[in-house]
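I have been asked to look over a protein record a colleague put together. Alongside the sequence sits a line of tokens, each denoting a local backbone shape. I have pasted the whole thing underneath without changing anything:
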Amino acid sequence: MKTTKDRISSRRIFGIWNKEASELFEQMLDSLSADARTRIAALPPEAKQDALQTVNPLLEDFLSLVDTVRNNICENSPVHELISYVLRDLNLSDKIRYLVCLGGSLSTFFLVKGWLKWAGWALFPSTREFLEKYQRLNTDFFVFFIPPVVLEDRAYWVAIGHEIGHVIEHLHSLVESIYPEVRVEDSDTPEGMDYFHSREYVSDYIANGYFGPIYYDVAYELLYVLKIRLYGTHPPYDARLYFLQKELEDVNVGRNKIQQPPSSQYTSILKLGQIISGAKNLLTTASCYYSANSDDAASAVENLKLGLPYIGAPRTVLNAYWEKRSEVLAALSEIMKERGRDPAQVQALAGSIIGDSIRLTNMQRTFQVMKKEEEDRQKREREKETKEREERKGRT
């Protein structure tokens, strides 16, 4: 474990919460080591052997996860900027700690919640206490895993909104306040389907309600056309798309439709409406429910056609690009020809411009937030000085 801790300490993890991630891993290792020394070392030889058979798989799983995260960190800056922008829109930028990693499928791992489900915690009481305290203070630490098929196409980045939806659903207990958590092993039971399918539907709703029609179209491509692998806990492709076209009809106007209603076993979740109502309330309270602005979209398209970043909401430039992709790519191809560049690389150029748009927009807003915070701090200092001066006058 000391070797793993040294590796964590010696390598900076890329991301906004890199320091907090390293601290969490190191504190876990310290706590596990301390428990092992005080609890297992004190056992009689026979009991110690039994304990080690329980503990070793747990430690191996933990160290394997640490190495997986450390070795697969996504260092694509615009992806981090997009997630940061969305969370700030939703007033969650200081509440959700996360890392972004490359993975085989689009998924989210809840580190603390996952660790607390491991067996063998009777041998690690102080480690369990540490994790429970961390959960009370910070909710959890999340790892977003993004597969190459999503990472390589800027338009597909909106699919990350589904994973953000899972975190929001967890943070606000949108599902668990209605349906108690069910073990994965029981996901095919009626209770399991209500629980797990509700989580997927509400995460889709949050992503589609925030990002707008591009999310529905990307979901259609990924789920219905490319048929990316889904876990057994997920509703089938057609059920999820049918749900979105019904629940967000005002957002998904004119999109590809699923004509045949899916089996009622996937749509008859009794309290799903109550769960979705909670999600809609979150989006509207944060003023984040998607509403198209034709002027902003036109400005975004014009910038992209000129090869210039668009400084504005990322969901605006992503929807604009998606709607006018052929027009944008044709204009950029002409620019590339004029500059003696290979027009076959036009999609890479468009992706780079969109990435710059997201990165620069979030940097600008971060600067504005920091500037406002500093102005507020200086104002408080001035008010404090004025109050103290008046109090001194009153005493003389």
About this structure: The beta strands are 97-102, 107-110, 141-146.
